[in-house]
Amino acid sequence: MTRWASTVVSRKWWVLSLAVVAVLVSGAWGTGVFAKLSSGGFTDPGSESAEVARIVQDNLGPQTPDIIAIYTAPEGKTLDDIGPEVTASLDRFAAEVPTYSVTSYWTADAARKQLMVSEDGTKASAAITVDPDAGITAATFDDLLPKLEVEGIDTEFAGNSVVGVAFNNRLQQDLVLAEAIALPITLVLLVFIFGGLVAAAVPVFVGLLSIFSALATLRLLTLFTDVSSFAINVASLLGLGLAIDYGLFVVGRFREELESGADVAEATRRTVLTAGRTVLFSGLLLVCAFSGMLVFPQDVIKSLGFGAMAAVASAALLSLTAVPALLAILGHRINALTWRKDAAQRGEVRARKFWGSVVTWVMRRPVAIAVGIVAGLMVLASPLLSASLGEVTYTALPENDSARIATDTLTTEFPTTGNGATLILRGTDGTAPTAADGAAVAQAAGRVEGIGAATVVASGNELVAVQAVYSEGVTTDDQSASVDGLRAITPPEGTELLVGGGQATVDDGNAAIVHWMPVMIAIMVGSTLVLLFLAFGSVVLPIKAVAMAGLSLAATFGVLTWIFELGHGASLLGVSPAPLEATFVVLILAVVFGLSTDYEVFLMSRMVEAHEAGATTEEAVRFGTERTGRIVTAAALLLVVVTGAFTISGLSIMRFLGVGMIVALIVDATVVRMLLVPSLVKLMGEANWWAPAWMKKVHAKVGLGH
Question: Which residues contact 229 (CB under 8 A, 6 or more apart)?
């Protein structure tokens, strides 16, 4: 860090120019990521249901249509009247676009024909499955739908691929809108925080660069793995927020060094060695937190983890290159364009006075403060006892979205398509199951509670496929119980039975998340304990930091459960109460844990700095809180603005993420970090700095210092 600080000062123009050019060029290339995003990845590829899906795909071909076109007969006409026009349109589509199958009400057999007409007889559907090898992407998929429209006939489009593309399009629109709203508000807030326009512009500048950097990193990842469409919003907005937070921290320290009388070069060096080291350490902590997401088998969680890690790395790297180089160039002009000459100094004095009085008040009654806050957070966490995990469905789209409207039409006006489970019976000793084996399994499946009927739908290629249809009116929980019942069926001798289907896939995915969650938590907690020890040389401080992060998490998920699952205030957010979506539970867990320890580093680094300079514990607490209170609360406020932009999304799951971030940041950066932590440090006294003698020796050799 010392060598890098000297490099930034001596070659400031080169460092800034290279950083900006590299980010802009790579970011321009990175904009191509939008055409390569995936809307899938929620399935555990190693699960039983995924194996069933592969078997069905390989032996029976695609079973789920990409597009379901719903045609409504105009007033005065019947479905038979519009049949020739629709059929001609479908034939032209099949001739122009590589398709696997095209089946409509007008061409289906008698049994399927009954399922492709609405109950009032005014609407009919056509199921189109695109050739999986046709190379059609999310970017080109929208061009297919107009080809299926017929002039004078109202047409709606549903289907898995249609819904997936609707999610992609909505996420891209939300990203542009969120950034357009967040950036101006952030700049205004920074002007008030710093008391000047130039100082405020630096964090926003690096925030803009971080967006380009995140796009480039995600585009690079698409060359090696699937990247979820959700990852682009998470990476861009998280990178923007962290870059602004880091920029705020670095600029604040630089101005503090200038005020102490240091010249520009020395102020830049000290800033890199203090705030820069803290930013580097913070980024490392956050990367470790997000790396825990890579243990899950679902591609969507891995890509969210990669996206978040890319955002953190981009923000930290730019804060250690472009920001200090720009500060070295600006020098004392960092305080230019203020509404009064001493605005910055007066603001800092007022902030230190305020936080000094707050921490003094806290340390006079540490027991009452600590007990009261912990009790309050536990009350907020209590709804967690009622929490359950769910899935992302089309209902996460806005109510006015055309894909959601069409899917609602399909589910409410058309007969059931036989939602159920798929059973695959295959031999284990090299012989194929017999017809009698398949019939026996179908008969046993039909007796499972919640199953209305079960029939053999295919036989051959050394396997038998059975379709088990759920009874009318069964709930999601009932379907899960039915899947368990189907899997409990004892298969005929010499065979094995696999159960798949929609609910089985959801259950297997959630089971994988529950199974791997402890591993993720162990990685986050273990890496945090080690890194914080290397930073502070204490055993107690890392344990306290993890405990505080746990409290913040519990309170956050308690509030989310109370709103999004139990439905209190859900109507105000325009969402329907439902179980918590498992993928975003994992994401929020990683983000909140990482940010909690992040703010802990900001606060404790100044306390440790004061204590090592000879201050008592109480003096160190006061010094650390006075010097970081304004920065931590301002950083949290800015991150609330940026990530709170998720709440304007039309997607309920993105609102879930936005509300979770707002709650976590407010709770952690104010109540926990500025009140609970000082009270606990005061209560523990000199024990805060304790570590066994042998660990002190380890820290002396390999510690990260301050």
Answer: 37, 38, 39, 138, 167, 168, 171
